[in-house]
Amino acid sequence: MSGVDPSHRVLSGMRPTGRLHLGHYHGVLKNWVQLQHEYECFFFVADWHALTTHYQDTRGIDQAITDMVIDWLAAGVNPGSATLFVQSQVVAHAELHLLLSMITPLGWLERVPTYKDQQEKLADKDLTTYGFLGYPLLQSADILLYRAGHVPVGADQVAHVEITREIARRFNHIYGREPDFEELAESACDKMGKKGAKLYRSLRKAYLENGDQEGLQRAQALVKDQQNITLADRERLIGYLEGTGKVILPEPQALLTEAAKMPGLDGQKMSKSYGNTIGLREDPDSVSTKMKRMPTDPARVRLSDPGTPEKCPVWQFHEVYSDQATKDWVRQGCTSAGIGCLECKQPVIDAVIAEQDQIIARAAPYEENPDMVRSILIEGAEKAEDDARQTLNEVRQAMGLSYR
Ligand code: TRP
Ligand code: SF4
Questions:
Q1: Which CATH number fits domain 6-176+251-261+370-398: 2.60.40.1730, 2.30.40.10, 3.40.50.620, 3.30.70.420?
Q2: 316 lines ligand 2 (CB under 6 A)
């Protein structure tokens, strides 16, 4: 893992669905904005993944990419901190996908829950394709190509991170074995000094013989603390612990993105397919009209009927947008039938419009000049490619494909 520290790397992708909505903003994008300050982040547009389900009609992908990336930028994702790129502009994703396909048992892919789920959900499409079956493996390639330790995803994607871990383990197991691996690992162990070596060996034994997880973690920490051994030796020692070989592709962790607390206009999850969204850059009149039409607690038929905020989607919006004083005013007014629902909605309407104001302003220069977006993505792809190439070199070497 020459020079790369997976625990400081974050990678995530989004299919190019075009303009995003407030659900994306409060769920995913604000999280990305936060992460970009704490980690080395790679955020990319998964356009090849979009093809797995939308191969019939690929027109419009270009526009969808631009629109979505403008939303990222408008939300505060900063190309100076994070690397932003389009998957198909870094062809290394395809090479790693292909190489990994050689060692991936069909059954693993067939058993990923999204495989059958999506085929049922998108029954109008023929998804009995090779590409669709390989969806999670392409995602594994995306992640492993950058040796990212953390992958922020929603709950629906956790299974894909899980299969990525299994693929990485299998890869390391098959190709991480140098012919003289055990001797090299044993001599690396001796380089930790008498005390270190003795501790390492006893922790390793406890883990391998009795499955002692704590022993494993302590031994990993011990190896990480060594200042005087080479990176190659460190990888050997880490791999040797679990009985695998050298760790060429480190296993990532899912960083579960909390579901946005804000529902759609009808109280269900905000989603394009439910038609209940507010766009991230929607004009104020349209925001206002949509919110005024929003259903409220069904018990409040007349103004004189008291309501229960917990039974009202508008309340969820207050939870996201309002301060304590406003929320107290809502609770008091709603349960005593002291305020009307339109009156109750107004502070949220104002808050959403104020939030969008900023976002719309940040999007404006990119909308006027989409070439700015293009050059951010080109620069991002170049940076991504450098990192990808390093991994692929190690992968090719480990697989015996470095013939020149
Ligand atoms: N499958 C993801 C989704 O639909 C998108 C994606 C593709 C992704 N490759 C990825 C997410 C790698 C995280 C990491 O949301
Ligand atoms: Fe919902 Fe507010 Fe109406 Fe109560 S007063 S039902 S919280 S919109």
A1: 3.40.50.620
A2: no
Decide: pTM greater than 0.90: no
Residue 305's pLDDT is 96
Which ligand is closest to the CA of 343, given by its number? 2
Ligand nearest to the backbone CA of 338? 2
pLDDT of residue 259: 76
Name the amino acid, one letter, at 399: M
Strand order in the sheet with 253-256: 82-86, 40-45, 9-14, 150-153, 253-256
Domain ranges (residues) in the chain: 6-176+251-261+370-398, 181-241, 272-366
Q: Which ligand is nearest to the CA of 47?
A: 1
205 CA to middle of ligand 1, Å? Answer: 38
Q: Which atom of ligand 1 has the smallest separation from the CA of 11?
A: 14
Residue 153 Cβ inside 6 Å of ligand 1? The answer reads yes
Q: How far is the CA of 21 from the centre of ligand 2 (A)?
A: 23
Give the other-Cβ count within 10 Å of 72's Cβ. Answer: 26
> What 3-state class would DSSP assign to 37?
helix
- Higher per-residue pLDDT: 228 or 192: 192
Residue 49 near residue 139, CB atoms below 8 Å: yes
314 lines ligand 2 (CB under 6 A): yes
Average pLDDT of span 128-137:
97
Model pLDDT, residue 244: 73
Average pLDDT over residues 200-210: 93
The pLDDT value recorded for residue 129 is 96
Question: 148 near 252, Cβ under 8 Å?
Answer: yes
Q: How many A from CA of 176 to the centre of ligand 1?
A: 27
Residue 384 has what pLDDT? 98
Residue the block writes with tokens 């090719």:
396
CA dihedral 97, 395, 379, 88 (to 10 degrees): -10
pLDDT at residue 211 in the model? 87
Give the pLDDT mean for 310-322.
95
Instruction: Write down the CATH number for the domain with range 272-366.
Output: 1.10.240.10
Q: Do 6-176+251-261+370-398 and 272-366 have matching folds?
A: no
> From the CB of residue 157, how many other CB atoms can be counted at a distance below 10 Å?
19
